[in-house]
Amino acid sequence: MDNPATQRILRPMTPDSDILIVGGGLNGPALALALAQSGLTVTVIDALPDTARKLADFDGRGYALALASKRLLASLGVWETVAENSQPMLEIKVTDGRAGEGPAPWMLHFDHAEIEEGPMGYMLEDRYLRIALLDAMASEPRITQINGETVVNQSVEMDHATIELASGKTITGRLLVGCDGRASGTASRAGIRRTGWDYGQTAIVCAVRHEKPHGGIAHQFFMPNGPLAILPLPANRSSIVWSESTARAESIMAMDEAGFLDALRPAFGSFLGEIALEGKRFSYPLKLTIANAFVGDRLALVGDAAHGMHPIAGQGLNAGLRDVAALAEVLTEARERGEDIASPQVLARYQQWRRFDTATLALATDTFNKLFSNDNPLLRTVRDFGMGAVNAMPGLRRGFIREAAGLTGDLPRSMRG
Amino acid sequence: MQTGPSTIDESEVAKFEAMAAEWWDTEGKFKPLHMLNPTRLDYITRQIAAEFGRDLSQEAPFKGLRLLDIGCGGGLLCEPMARLGATVVGADAAAGNIPVARIHAEQSGLEIDYRHTTAEDLAAAGEQFDVVLNMEVVEHVADPQAYLNACHALLKPGGLHICSTINRNPKSFAMAIIGAEYVMRWLPKGTHEWSKFITPDELFAMLRQAGLDPVDRKGFSFNPVLWSWSISERDLSVNYVTAAIRRH
Fold first, then answer.
1. Would you state the pLDDT for residue B21?
2. Where does the record place the FAD-binding domain (chain A) (predicted)?
3. In this structure, which of B89, B114, B136, B209 has its CB flanked by the most CB atoms within 10 Å?
4. A314, pLDDT greater than 90
5. What is the mean pLDDT of residues A393-409?
């Protein structure tokens, strides 16, 4: 092997891990667990120390996990630890509303009793999901966590990818996965550009405690400035996703707690009685951003790093978890076939699977939002009529319920029942 | 046995590197083979796992198995088998393929014993294997029965022989020769001779004649709408694959 004729060939090396994941938020740990489960070794790098990511107190953030996402978490052994803190969504009511006028006569009503799979989704506070994922990673011997370290550089060789940390340390893996959000450094360092547009809207996210029980019902009100979602949390609490024009959202965020509640009440209505704020308020500018490629040389992008979506239907995390399930399935199959898991052919399968799905969802969400965030009387009549029509047709309604539960499209195996 | 390209002139290495890149370019000259490869690997890995009681989700599931790939080309099957832990010998009658396959294996960090030889010569030398892969070769040889006899001799008792080829009927003529060679230009014209194609029943009869026990046959079916291959239980009309065991 030390023949001079072979010296110009790059020496093969054994990388530190099969997979390097940049970003230890939600998608990163979920992917690490799925890959470790199928026998791959994984290193997860996050810029924050893990104590900073494990907040014990409720900070006001919550997720509407579609049934398909819950199934993935169950297959990772994470669901059982968070189940008792989750709130099943038994019904979804969609109403076209205008502040102070109450709901329009037409209303869409989706009831889980219409599909056999059970509740279409579950509400779960961010803190429970985050801690459960971090704990599960800690007890998985195939996962190495590097916390509180920033990636400053990345490069690709013939048979591995290398990342360099701010501390000067380098780590190698066969495949690099960017789970580092919509401003993904992993994507930009690889020269992957993004296309996107700004809605001029900002989503305010918080939780409220209310006087009356919500009965497991999620509400979506389409207000002229943007949608308001009221999603049931355990006990008499609900998670709020309130979209407003950015200027108005900024002024609402600047208000004190009493002022904030005064601004919220006319949109929220009185059907749950008195309301009070729980935890902090968050605001997220609504921008759609899609990476021009989901894969590169020994590189794959997952979640917001691939596609930052309008959070109108709570589809951001659900779409990310779908990426996780699809990438894990593609890599597991490739490994069991003996393929190079980071070969262009293998990565192309993931990109092909997820890009179409994502583009469709992003466009649908965008159109939906444009149609509903509008006070044009003609449009309002059209959509009221449309909602009434959907509501009157059980087949169509069931289709929407299955869509909300994340059960449509080419579903990864871990998300099927 | 040499595993590096040590018998190769320095100036030749660059040429072989370029040829290796060509063999492994999924969009290049060997694109049809790359498209079929995952489906072939699915069949091969599952048959080996079932026959030798291996769990594919484990690390190096084929560890301890000695495997021969006849007509190895650039190593499209040898490398996955080596990655799964098998001890792999790749044989090719075309001398030019050997250094190319060696260079790519080295770049991939895999140890594979590539040899410029034939099944008959290996059998004459008394070499024996747990698994013999005989993929898309039998339709090219002059005397298929003599060739399959050699494959039998290359297997240890209890060994597994996997053989894929092309059926002989009007559809296979249209697909493999007119379609693949003339219309799609996937393969050089004249790659195949239709009269040499073998039906599954004929292949089973020849395998038995060679002393092997045929245990399975499946189709590799191309879906022109999805533009992809899959394993088919029923459609053996064009490409198909068989598994046979050497009992004793």
1. 80
2. 17-355
3. B114
4. no
5. 67
Is there a contact between A387 and A106 (Cβ–Cβ < 8 Å)?
yes
Report chain A's C-alpha Rg in angstroms: 22
B92: annotated binding-site residue? Answer: yes
| Between residues B192 and B168, the one the model is more confident about | B168
Closest chain B residue to the Cα of A40, Cα to Cα: B59
> Which of B204, B71, B202 minimizes the C-alpha distance to B140?
B71
* Number of domains composing chain A: 1
pLDDT confidence of residue B183: 72
Residue A110 falls within a domain, yes or no? Answer: yes
pLDDT tens string B56-109:
988 899 999 999 999 999 999 999 999 999 999 999 998 889 999 999 999 888
Q: For the domain that residue A377 is a member of, what is the CATH number? A: 3.50.50.60
CA separation for the pair B109, B107 (Å, rounded)? 5
Mutation for B interface: A1, A6, A41, most B CBs within 10 A: A6
- Which domains, and CATH codes, for chain B? 10-245 (3.40.50.150)
Q: Is residue A12 assigned to a domain?
A: no
B71 is in an annotated binding site: yes
Within a domain: A381:
yes
What is the per-residue pLDDT across A114-146, written as a single tens digit (0 to 9) for each?
777 778 789 999 889 999 999 999 999 999 999
Please give the model's pTM, rounded to 2 decimal places: 0.86
Query: What residues in chain B have their Cβ under 8 A from chain A's Cβ atoms?
Result: 3-6, 8-10, 13, 17, 26, 34, 38, 41-42, 45, 56-59, 79-84, 103, 106-110
Q: What DSSP string describes B88-99?
A: EEEEESSTTHHH
Hey, of A37, A337, A345, which one would you mutate to test binding to chain B, going by the most B CBs within 10 A of its CB?
Answer: A337
Q: Which residues of B touch A4 (CB under 8 A)?
A: 10
Asked if the structure places residue A5 within a domain, the reply is: no
Position B4 scores a pLDDT of 41
Which position has the token pair 């994470």? A78
Cα(A407)–Cα(A231) distance, integer angstroms = 20
Tokens 């014993």, residue located? B113
Of B10, B38, B45, which has the smallest distance from its Cβ to A5's Cβ? Answer: B10
Mutate to test the interface with A, among B3, B6, B7, B33 (most CBs of A within 10 A): B6
CB nearest A338 (choices: B57, B83, B107):
B83
Domain holding A217, by residue range, is: 17-415
Q: What is the pLDDT of residue B201?
A: 96
